[in-house]
């Protein structure tokens, strides 16, 4: 097989000016040569930290790498550098949504509409803010404004489907998203929305039928791999679920919800050592998470280490935000001198209490796996 030869060769960009350097960087990005593009952008920003074009491109590059906190800083600098261009506040607003800063997102989308009141993407962005605040009426009004200015706007159409679903009209939601997927098979968000609907309706096979063809185009979508893992778990394809969630973790290694999905795929296969190694590699900041302690408990239960399981579940309860001391005191084993404690029964009681809290918050956890 012949070696791949880059179409864009490194050139001396010293004397080509900023526009020439940006054109060269765009060519590098077009060939997915991200490290080289970042080096060029760093040099450009060192020479001119307030460069509109350099900050915009650096922000986009960091978005693709899912470094959203850094990306938003560059979009905000671009806003200041060119306050009459609506593109920077729209991209900043979208990035604020990714880091769950709804106030920041709303400010940016309003700023974009001050520049261009007919900008459909900004109206759709504000609709997303309202939807996440559970302000369904306001979200629907904004979506309709977005679609009035751009009837083909895919984000607005997908959000309208989610609004219909929230209002209980699942059939309208499904038809709307299916139409978008058919019209725009290259767009990942409608695919994710349709897969979510199928999972919500306990139709994992239909969800897989939507997701699997899309993966050839969207190999870098953490959300798609996470949904595919959930669908495969639902049909008890634990090996397939493990493969899907492992792909997602290659892209975003420290996502807590993905960790839970991986464990749910490993433990039915009795892959205890793999599960323990995965948990042991989690960063230190995760150590005091109730979910991590509960996960250790689940692994110990599968391995038959009931004393260790009880200890881990106990720690999970103690680290709960609402305080688990009362539950621990209630469930703690009692024995007289010389009596052997039935650690399996103790662990099962703790496990039931831990998972009782997990079920109560299950919908929110699933939304975290695949943020819109």
What's the arrangement of secondary structure elements?
Elements: H1 17-30, H2 34-47, H3 52-64, H4 68-81, H5 87-98, H6 102-115, H7 120-132, H8 136-149, H9 154-166, H10 170-183, H11 188-200, H12 204-214, H13 222-234, H14 238-251, H15 256-266, H16 272-280, H17 290-303, H18 306-318, H19 325-331, H20 343-360, H21 362-369
Helix pairs in contact: 1-2, 1-3, 2-3, 3-4, 4-5, 5-6, 5-7, 6-7, 7-8, 7-9, 8-9, 9-10, 9-11, 10-11, 11-12, 11-13, 12-13, 13-14, 13-15, 14-15, 15-16, 16-17, 17-18, 17-20, 18-20
CATH class call of the domain at 189-268: Mainly Alpha
One letter per element, helices H and strands E, the order comes to HHHHHHHHHHHHHHHHHHHHH
- Overall form: globular
The largest sheet is: none
The count of strands amounts to 0
Summed over residues and divided by their number, the pLDDT gives a mean of: 82
Radius of gyration: 24 Å
Distance N terminus to C terminus?
41 Å
Describe the structure.
Among the domains are: 189-268, Serine Threonine Protein Phosphatase 5, Tetratricopeptide repeat; 270-332 and 343-357. It is mainly α. The two termini are 41 Å apart. Helix 2 packs antiparallel against helix 3 (52-64). The longest helix is centred in the C-terminal third of the chain and has 18 residues, at 343-360. The protein has 21 helices and no strands. Mean pLDDT is 82; it is low at 1-13 and 359-372.
């Amino acid at each position: 097989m012949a070696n791949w030869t880059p179409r864009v060769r490194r050139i001396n960009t010293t004397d080509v000016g900023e526009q020439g350097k940006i054109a060269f960087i765009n060519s590098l990005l077009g060939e997915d040569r991200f490290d080289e593009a970042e080096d060029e952008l760093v040099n450009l920003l060192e020479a001119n930290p307030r460069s509109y074009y350099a900050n915009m491109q650096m922000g986009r590059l960091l978005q693709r790498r899912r470094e959203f906190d850094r990306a938003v800083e560059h979009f905000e600098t671009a806003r200041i550098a060119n306050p009459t261009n609506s593109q920077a506040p729209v991209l900043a607003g979208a990035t604020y949504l990714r880091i769950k800063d709804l106030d920041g997102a709303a400010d940016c989308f309003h700023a974009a509409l001050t520049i261009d009141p007919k900008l459909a993407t900004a109206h759709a962005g504000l609709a997303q803010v309202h939807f996440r605040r559970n302000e369904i009426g306001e979200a629907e009004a904004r979506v309709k404004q977005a679609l009035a200015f751009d009837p083909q706007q895919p984000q607005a159409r997908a959000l309208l489907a989610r609004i219909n679903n929230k209002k209980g009209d699942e059939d309208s939601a499904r038809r709307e998203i299916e139409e978008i997927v058919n019209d725009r098979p290259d767009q990942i968000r409608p695919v994710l929305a349709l897969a979510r609907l199928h999972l919500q309706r306990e139709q994992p096979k239909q969800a897989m039928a939507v997701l699997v063809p899309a993966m050839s185009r969207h190999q870098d979508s953490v959300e798609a791999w996470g949904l595919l893992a959930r669908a495969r778990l639902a049909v008890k394809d634990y090996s397939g679920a493990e493969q899907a969630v492992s792909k997602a973790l290659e892209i975003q290694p420290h996502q807590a919800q993905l960790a839970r999905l991986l464990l749910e795929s490993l433990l039915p296969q009795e892959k205890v050592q793999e599960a323990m190694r995965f948990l042991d590699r989690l960063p230190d900041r995760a150590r005091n998470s109730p979910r991590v302690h509960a996960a250790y408990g689940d692994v110990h239960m599968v391995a038959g280490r009931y004393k260790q399981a009880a200890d881990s579940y106990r720690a999970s309860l103690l680290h709960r935000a609402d305080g688990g001391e009362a539950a621990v005191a209630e469930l703690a084993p009692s024995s007289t001198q010389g009596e052997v404690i039935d650690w399996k029964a103790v662990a099962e009681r703790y496990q039931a209490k831990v998972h009782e809290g997990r079920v109560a918050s299950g919908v929110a956890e699933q939304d975290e796996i695949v943020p819109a």
